[in-house]
Each structure stands twice: as C-alpha cells, then as structure tokens.
From TrEMBL:
It comes from Hymenobacter yonginensis. This is MoxR family ATPase. SMART domains: AAA. Residues 72-213 form the AAA+ ATPase domain. CDD domains: AAA. It holds the Pfam family AAA_lid_2. InterPro entries: AAA+_ATPase, ATPase_AAA-3, CbbQ/NirQ/NorQ/GpvN, ChlI/MoxR_AAA_lid, P-loop_NTPase.
Length: 351
C-alpha cells in the first residue's frame, strides 16, 4: 500500500494569515509546540530499530508496523512465503523486550492443553494443581499458526481477547504485557487449517512480509559470504522493560484525536459492511484497532495527535484479514487491499 503521508498536517495549530513580518523573515516562525513529550518513546523506538538492523536487512516499514502494534497493545499476524525471515523477525523483536518469551510450533496433533497448560493431581496434597502452559509469557511466538486444528485454535480465543485462561472454573491471568506474534504461509495447503474469522478478528494487524529488493538481497549474500551469516541472536540486547512499555502505552492512549477523525474511522469501517464487493464487513473491533493503531503510529512519528494519513496508512493492515470478498470479486482477481483502497477513495477526508 502506498504511503500517503505528507509533511504537512491539518490537525496542528491553524496556519495564520501571512503577514508582512512573516514574509520578510519566514525562518522566525514558531514551530508547533507538542502537548506531550515523546522523546522517551522516540528514543526507545530507535533503540529497537537499531537492534533489529543488526540482523534484518531492510524491512523498515515492517519494523515500524511491528512497533506500532506493540505500542497499541495488539496481536500481530505475519504472512509470507518461507524464507523471508518471519520467525526470525518475531524472535528478534521479542529479544529487544526484557519480558518473558515463549515459542510454540503449531502442528496438526497439538492439543489445547499443550498451549494453555493442564491440571496435575498432587497425591501429597490430595488436590489438583494447575501447571501453566507456554501461553503464559509476555511475548508468545506461534509459528505456522494455521497448522493446528480448530480445537486448538479455539483455545486461543479467550486468552487473546481477555488476557486470561479459564481452567476447571478458575481464571489465571497471563503476564502483562501480553502479545501474540503468529506466522503463517499463504501458499501452503497440505496439513493446514483455515483460521476462524473470530480468531482473525483478534489480531490487530495482518502484515505481509514480502521478498527483499535486489539491493537488500545482495547485502544478505555479502554478509553470509563474509562468514558470519548475520549477527547471532545473542548480539541483540533487550532495550525496553515491561515497566517502560506500560508507560509508553499509557502515553499512546492519551494521544489527541479530533472528533471528525473518529467519524472518519467509523465511516471507513462502516463502508466495508455496505460495499458490494464484500459479503463480510469489519466489526466495531476493527474501528477500535484502527484508532489505537493510528495513535501509536502518530507517536512513533513524533506527533501527539492523529491525522487522516495515519488512518489511511493503517487501513489495509487492520482490515485485510477482517473482510471477505464475494466470489465474483475473487474471480476477477481483486484482493482485500484493493477494496480497502477503493473505500478510502470514496470517503471524504476530513480537513
């Protein structure tokens, strides 16, 4: 999706009428005064980018969207063909955060108890004791999530939405923060299961991981030929603690949003329910995801207010996995991103 961001912003302070003084000395104009100090957030974000760049070549847009989702307290679904560093990127991102991490390799024989945990009988206490599963971590990497059957997929519904697991009538909270990073291969069909719509809706973003450019692939080959094959994972250091992340998320939640932008988000998402090319539109959860994501993206880009460009930039990652095309549109070769682009063109942008 094209980046429609512009350097100007209609939601900053109104531009005053030109004066003779301004015409003589334009360099003396007073810059926009931010309402919130975002220096700490920018510093942490840059530190994470530097750590990721030790191993990953290119993928700057992907890194920005990953950071946006982390700040917006959302789960991420990474989709791409094998070999484009989906799992590696997720592991590196987890290493930059000083929080508990676990990895799950989904397979067709995986059971819900393998994910959530199970109750074990203790004879000395004559009672059952719950042993937490690998889902009880702050960053949970689920590799090839579409390889597990529906029974195991449904085990993720509660924990991804409510951040808790219910076992034998008792609720167990997962650590805070809690983020699921899942990967899947879009072309492989053998031994895979389609993710339920209810589960897809729980992911904040669905991100496409594409092939590197020729220049980026040359850099990858040069590094491998030099003998190191990329920096080892151990060289990536944790630069953000759980307390720091909670503080940054609270700052993101306080981002300024104009009322007409809230209406714009509602119109964009609402249009997915009326578009003739779709038989499944997005729910209000998509509106919330678009709002929270836009707040985080604006903060990453050094602004304490959201613009229409932020909403437009995130519309495809937020909506592409929440809408479904009609069979006629699929036969024509249309994609969800094409429909989202059409919707954005049809709705008037607030100014």
């Amino acid at each position: 999706m094209e980046n429609n961001l512009t350097p100007e912003n209609e939601f900053s302070q109104p531009t005053p009428e030109p004066t003779a003084e301004a015409a003589v000395a334009p360099d003396t104009a007073v810059p926009f005064a931010a309402r919130t100090d975002l220096s700490a957030l920018s510093r942490h974000a840059e530190a994470i980018r530097q750590q990721l760049s030790k191993v990953i070549v290119g993928q700057q847009a992907l890194a920005e969207l990953l950071l946006t989702a982390i700040l917006a307290d959302g789960h991420i679904l990474l989709e791409g063909v094998p070999g484009v560093a989906k799992t590696l990127t997720a592991k590196l991102l987890a290493r930059t955060l000083d929080v508990p991490f676990s990895r799950l390799q989904f397979t067709p024989d995986l059971m819900p108890s393998d994910v959530l945990g199970t109750s074990i009988f203790r004879p000395n206490k004559a009672e059952f004791e719950f042993r937490p599963g690998p889902i009880f971590a702050s960053i949970v990497l689920i590799d090839e999530i579409n390889r597990a059957p529906a029974k195991t997929q449904s085990a993720l519904f509660e924990v991804m939405e409510e951040r808790q697991v219910t076992q034998d009538g008792t609720r167990y909270a997962v650590p805070e923060p809690f983020v699921v990073l899942a990967t899947q291969n879009p072309i492989e069909q053998e031994g895979t299961y389609r993710l339920p719509e209810a589960q897809l809706d729980r992911f904040l973003f669905k991100l496409h991981v594409g092939y590197p450019t020729v220049e980026e692939e040359i850099a990858i080959l040069q590094g491998h030929h030099a003998g190191f094959g990329g920096t080892p994972l151990e060289a990536v250091q944790a630069v953000l603690s759980a307390d720091d992340l909670r503080s940054l998320r609270e700052q993101v939640r306080r981002q300024h949003v104009e009322p007409k932008l809230l209406e714009y988000i509602a119109r964009v998402v609402g249009q997915t329910r009326a578009h003739k090319g779709l038989y499944l539109g997005a729910s209000p959860r998509a509106s919330l995801a678009l709002l929270n994501g836009a707040k985080a993206l604006a903060a990453l880009r050094g602004r304490d207010f959201v613009t229409p460009e932020d909403v437009q930039y995130l519309a495809a990652p937020v909506l592409r996995h929440r809408i479904q095309l009609t069979p006629e549109r699929e036969m024509e070769g249309s994609t969800p991103d094409d429909i989202v682009k059409q919707i954005l063109q049809q709705i008037e942008v607030p100014r």
